[in-house]
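Hey, I was hoping to borrow your eyes for a little while. I'm sending you its amino acid sequence along with the backbone structure tokens. Take your time with it, there's no hurry, and the full record follows here.
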Amino acid sequence: MKLFENAKKKNIRFSLSPSAVLLFFLAASGIMWFISIFRHGIYGTQISAFFMRFEDFLADFLNVIGYSAYGDPYNCTAYTGLQEKGYPPLTYVLLRPFSGLVDIAHYYEQNRFLNMYQEPLLLMMLMIAQTAVLCALFFLIYRNAKGSTAKKGLMIGTLMLSRPVFFTIERGNIILLAAVCTACFLFHYQDTNRVRKEIALIALGIAFGLKLSPAVLGFLLLVNKQFREAVRAALYGLFFLFAPFLLLKGGFSNVPLFIRNMKLLVQAYGERGAFLEHRLNEMNLPALAQHAAGITGAFVYLICALLLFFCFFYRRKWERILAITLVLLLAPSFSGYYCVLYLIPAAVMFLTEKRYRPADWLAAVSFLMIFSLYQSEFLSRLDHLSGIYILTFLMLLYGLFAVVQTKLERSAAAAGTDLNSIRSYRIVSGDYRIKIPSVPVAVRRRILIVSGAVLLVSSVGIRLYPVIRDSITYRRGTAQLSKGCYREALDTFTSLGRYRDSEEQTAACCKQLTDAAIGAEADGDYEKAADLYRIAPQYADNRIRLADLLELHSDLVQVNDQIHLANMLWIVLEQTENEYLLMSAENVGTHKFYEDPSQEQIDWDNPEAMKIALAQSSHPALTWETSTIRQWLNEEWFPQFPDEVKDRVIRCSIHTPANPTYGTDGGNDTEDNTFLLSAQEFSDYTQKCVFDTKYRAALLRSTGKKEGTVAFFMDNDLYEMGGFNDIVEGEIYPVMRIRR
């Protein structure tokens, strides 16, 4: 109390800055995390700071070592599909030497790399490499942070012992090196020392060569009109992107393979706007999540464009860097948690800012949510993504204020106002050393009203957009249904999901078109009836009605129709004047691709037994020619057909090409009455046909990622990885070619 009384007498004012509060809570979160880890161990929630609770420890590092071991990563078919081999070549070149520390051939035989972390030499060298990279990050933060040594030490400790850093170390992802390179660039791209500035440009080139996406940071050079530096940075980036191809097998012939794998990667993981939708679903807000799915895909690019535009108006350096970094996180169609490492330079500059605005407290809260090591169970649904959203909103607001400020300054300059004789305009100014014109009350009120109106209209518009869109779509569907445009109406109401009574309208549409089809069939207009049945074959018994109609009028049969044969429904894959190629629309049995009678049965309800069985799987070298399922189809299943059906079946010469992804041999040609589709044939037929396995695995005749495994499909999705098929079963959908 005496301290406060003395302070009051001496007119001393106490104030808490956002940086001090942020550092305090970050330090407290780290202490609480360590206490919780040692108290609760593997059963606590804080272990979730590591991905999947260490179940695939160092997965990113170990997998890339495996893929690059033989210098041909873009053709590597080991362990995973080609969509997982989409890194730029510099990543594979840097990590390939680590494969020499283990018996890599042994792990290729196992077709699994995740247990390589048990190799002491490999683990030790990884620890040395990660320590060197972390020391570089330590040096960059210490050299560029401002303040006392104690403050610098606290800043380094809280940022380097943060959740994203721990997460990245556990993953072993090379993005840690990319983050250090981007930090070097962001700290020194405006450096007066030529050597440091050039090193910064080279570092940006290396980051681009590692991850591609850091290229967006080069926009800062354009903002500062550093056009020569931008050209040099672009040349460095191109060098580190293409030169490493020469160190791989095939050299520049890998470029189209890299592009192919990148496309597969984006197709597999790219979902624009999915982050916000996923977060709202986790917060039990499904209605908002549904609206978010419709708008975030379009608005994310608008937000990124605004952030880039505002970079020309931001007054504080950390604002420009933070805005560009947010674009780096938001623009890619997928971005892992470790990508928030790119925010470290902006956080350091924020913590060393001399003056703060009141709104900067939001930035402090956001950084706390992003870098906090301790995860409160009470706030478990608020994570780094929530912090990124708050930062994005804040930077857009800062940008609006900065544009207004710039407009006022230019107006004052045009009017010849003396800027040194007037007071600060604190609402929009972040730098109190620059004095800008005092604006009349009426003008300020008008600015605030216009700004508030713009924000209000934008907020209301974003909220009402999906409602208005769905309302217009609903009215369009109602009009289509009243005009008898059943196909269009059905598509419209289906796209609306649970909006209003869209589900009831969908059912009503199906009923009306079924009634119309029955009426057309009664009137003798069989072609119209068949077309109507095809619109909603899943409704009621329309599929059976269509099959009955086609049995009487075979001239109406089309590809993807289902017809009767031997008391079964068959999908028409191909048809000519004389022949059909048919695939069973029903599962005829569940079998293994290879059956070993001597093998013990597995208790599928016992996870430990399942793991042991997978680990001991022998993977016999077999193909379609020697598979057990081929023998069963042709020697046991097919002979059960009536003679009149067997007489119509055409015995075919079957060629099974190599797996299109992994290149595994399909085996010798065979002669079969009935067979399974190959992976290539399945992909071709899915362009015209719809398959329904009720999301259960159905076998194909193509080999999987190695001999002894087989490709399979679920509904219309192809899975070429195969499986451990000497123990795992799959459903059977036979194919036959018959005479009409």
Summary: Confidence is low (pLDDT under 50) at residues 1-5, 7-14, 419-437. The radius of gyration is 32 Å. Residues 270-416 form one domain.
